[in-house]
């Protein structure tokens, strides 16, 4: 059997991943309607080495009827199903809305009663163009922590009996569950790769900026001296009145630094407040790590006219001080876009450098001793290099875990694997240091010509599901024509496999005879020796 199939580079080493590395999968955005089918999906995840599933606990579902009127019945059935499947669970306290952002397939607004608590000016974001945004409650609303405390406390009291499956808990710091401003909202006209819009033009936000400058400088004369202005009162201080000009020139000034420092500090202060509430509610009950997510805002990173403008609009002005708050609040950090590369780093209009950004943030997290986890930003489909990119980041930068977006990409609705499962398992799941078994394959009498190598392919996801695109290898050849390769496999699984010869052009020669069979040990290491059959 021969074909022309390109065999992509596969990451097989696990020496440099964090010792507690775990793999998770995001659950569906939609409500589960068939829990028997859902259980089958979860069992498939478990059988393919996934540790746990992450789940949005939508505020808009559970407290929709009114303040302190909670209905947890759906999520208790959900948690029961996760437990029955043998997986761990990561609840995400999703106090944001769903709908309107990339990947959103359902609309789940924030409970309508929330917006009656105060004025729109105090509770929502307002951007440069005057658009109001209700994806999340504004950090300028003084009652924010009280609302979250009610939500968190109710979850803790209702799910205390599930602490055995709760691996960690995530809190939402803004749109899409990420600690950021809703700066790039398609419903307000944003298109990629635009910088987005600043979100601080409500009266509450402007007053906050004015008060921050009053606290820093004391007098308007001191402001004028620092900024080179001639203001007569603090009430004349405002956010940028011309965003494009600001991000082209003004951000480099003392005013620009003061503004962007304050703009980010609003997010870090919000994180400090909601993290304090989360620890108070969750630590005594679950004793599980708590985390929050930072978005990978990678476009315009290298823009020659307004570098980093998209990041700045989202609130990311100084990643070091941003991560300092994660450390101070004892939070794990998740960062996105691990699947992307820097191929458009200097290509107009993108100037996108996600890989550089991941490296920078991960190095900061390592230096500060912050537990950090990774995600892909967009769903991966028929793109093995994206999985390889993820694996390279995970192995090179001490990530403690990875969460794949999303369940439906790797498991069908009835519980069978899709074609995406094999590259996911091969590149990412097998990195788990304590969740796989290293098995050494020895292939005797496998003669080859120059440019031809030996690979292993088989019946399970970690051996490519018989798809030679994901064949494992190449094997090494210390004593020709004997070849060896060590592959991390899932403990206890029964495999069928064959050796194949693949040359540099992708031509494939399959080993003859029947499939080989082997049962992976449940602990320790394994080995299997075969002789090539023509």
Automatic annotation (TrEMBL):
InterPro entries named in the record: CBM20 (IPR002044), GH (IPR017853), Glyco_hydro_14 (IPR001554), Glyco_hydro_14_CS (IPR018238), Glyco_hydro_14A_bac (IPR000125), Ig-like_fold (IPR013783)
Sequence intervals crossing the membrane: none
Q: Which cofactor does it need?
A: Ca(2+)
Superkingdom of source: Bacteria
EC number(s) stated in the UniProt entry for this protein: 3.2.1.2
**One matching Pfam family, short form?**
Glyco_hydro_14
Q: Which UniProt keywords apply?
A: Carbohydrate metabolism, Glycosidase, Hydrolase, Metal-binding, Polysaccharide degradation, Signal
**Residue span, CBM20 domain:** 431-534
Q: Which reaction does it catalyse?
A: Hydrolysis of (1->4)-alpha-D-glucosidic linkages in polysaccharides so as to remove successive maltose units from the non-reducing ends of the chains
| Top-level enzyme category | hydrolase
Q: Which family does it belong to?
A: Belongs to the glycosyl hydrolase 14 family.
Instruction: Please report the name of this protein according to its UniProt entry.
Output: Beta-amylase
